[in-house]
Amino acid sequence: MDQEELINAYLEGTLSPEDQELFEKLLEEQPEYKKLLEEHKKVKIAVTLQERNDLKAILKEIDQEEKDRQKPSSPVKSWLFSGIAACLIVITGFFLWINLSMNPGEKLFKSYYETYPNLVAPTVRGDQESTLKSDAFLAFDNGDFENAASLFDRLQNEAGGDYAAFYSGICQLELGRPEKAIPLFQKVNENASQPDKITAIWFEALGYFLLNKLPEGKSLMTKVAASPGHPLQNRAQEILEKLK
Amino acid sequence: MDVKEKQLELLKAGDRETLKQIYLSHKKGFRLFAKRYTSDDDLIDNAYQDAIIVLAENAQKGKIQTLNSSIGTYLYSVGKFILFKSLKKNHLTSELTEEVKEELISESFEEETKDEMILRLRQKLENLGPKCREILRLFYYQAKSLDEICQIMGYDSKEVLKSTKSRCLKSLKDTLNQT
Which ranges form a coiled coil (chain B) (predicted)? Predict the structure, then answer.
C-alpha cells in the first residue's frame, strides 16, 4: 500500500484494528505522514464548509420563494414604532413586577416550561387539505392557543386522539390555566407514543408547580426522573435537587 | 418502510424536494419555540438552517438510519443546542447526549472557517472540474468509500478512481501553490 492508499483507507475507516494501530504509530514516527494527513483533513474541512455554504444558499432560496408567495405587507408608519416602543416600556415594567411577585412554584414553572413543539402534523402550505387536525395544529403553530384548544378538544374522542388531549393541555398551560391542563395530561394513555406518557407527566407536574402545589408536582417529577434514557430525565432530576 | 424511514432514505440520496419539505414543515414550529429565548429572527433562522444541515449530513453519512425519535424531535434538539450555543446560554439544558454535543461542536469547524489555508482551498475548489469536485465531495463530505464512489459515478475500476482522485488533489495543490 502506498502513502495515499494508506491515508484513503484510514479516512474511510477500512483499516483493520491492527493496521490502524500501526498507522497511528507511523504518524507519530514519520512527520511526512502526519503532514499528508493534515493536508487531507484540510481538504475535507474545505469541501465540507463549501457544501454547507451551498446548502445554506439553497435554504435561503426556499425562504425567498416562500416570501414571494406571500403578499407584501403594507408600509408601517413611523408613529406606530413610537407607540410600540411606549408599550414595550410598560410591558417590561409589568413583567419585572410580575417576576418579583412570583411564588416558588411559578418560578420553577417559568424556568423549566417551554412550548412543546408540533411534532404530529407539521404545517406545510399548499400540500394538505384542511382537516380538523390540520386546523388545530395550524392554530397551535400560529400561537392561537384559545382556538387550538377548542379544536383539540373536539379531536379528543377520535381513535388515536391521545395527542389531542396532550396538545389541548399545552394550550391551557400557554393560556395560564393549569387547573384545566392537569386533567388533560392525565387523560394521555400509558402506551401513548407521540408524545409519550412521561412527557405528559412532566407537563402535569409543571402545571402543579404553576398552581404552587409543590408536593403534587414533586411526586410526579419523581416518575420522570426515574425514566432511564428519557430526554426529560436529567431536567426532572435537576428540579428534584432544587426542591430538596 | 414508514414515512420517517422513507424520508431518511430520500435525504440520504440527497433528494432536494424532501429536504425542502422537511425544512418548511418544522420551520414555523421551531420559530415559535425559539422565540421564547430570543427575538433575533436571524439567529433563530440560522440555528434552524444549521440543524437542517446537520440532519442532511448525518442522513447522507448513514449516521441516523435508526433514529429513535421523529425527524422533528431530532431537528428541535439539534436546533435548540445550536441556538443556546450562539446565545451563549450553555447553562440551559438540551436533550442531546454529551457525545452528540461534542460531535456537533467538533464538526462545526468554527475555528477552521478563519484558517487562511482553508479559505484558499475553498476558493480553489470552485476552479476544479465537475468530476473532481464530485469525487472530493463524495469522499470527504459524504464519507463514501472508494468502492461506493465507483458505483455512484460508474467507474469500472477502483484503480482508475484512485488515480483520478489523486490527480484531483494534486491539481488542487498545484493551483494553491501558484498564488
Answer: none
